[in-house]
Amino acid sequence: MLASYTMQSSILEDVFSSTKPIKRSIRGVKAMQKDMKRITITLPDQTANELEDWANQQGRPTANLAAYLVEQGMNQAREKEQYTPSESKKATKGK
User: Is the Cβ–Cβ distance between 54 and 8 less than 8 Å?
Assistant: First the structure.
């Protein structure tokens, strides 16, 4: 069931309404990739199609937009105290 992948709708609405194209230098992107982890998610067809369309409109890769949206959603969840990193995750964050 896809319901297990849903976030609080208010968080997603906040994230989606504030998303703007991000322009980064190639050097900055390569430096950031060293601290990135690759994951796989499953989305409903309509959501995936809309995400691809949105990324195309902004001139960026779909995975880049998806990563940005997830990061923004996580930041907002922490700010609203809907998520608190466990101690083991806090210790490895700076590495």
Answer: no
Tens of pLDDT along 55-77?
999 999 999 999 999 999 999 99
pTM of the entire structure? 0.59
Question: Is the residue at 71 inside a domain?
Answer: yes
Q: Mean pLDDT across the stretch 17-37?
A: 61
* Integer CA distances (angstroms), 80 to 11, 76, 77, 89, in order: 9, 6, 5, 19
Place of tokens 């319901």: 3
**68 domain-assigned:** yes
Tokens for 84, please give them: 């608190």
Q: Which amino acid is at 29?
A: V
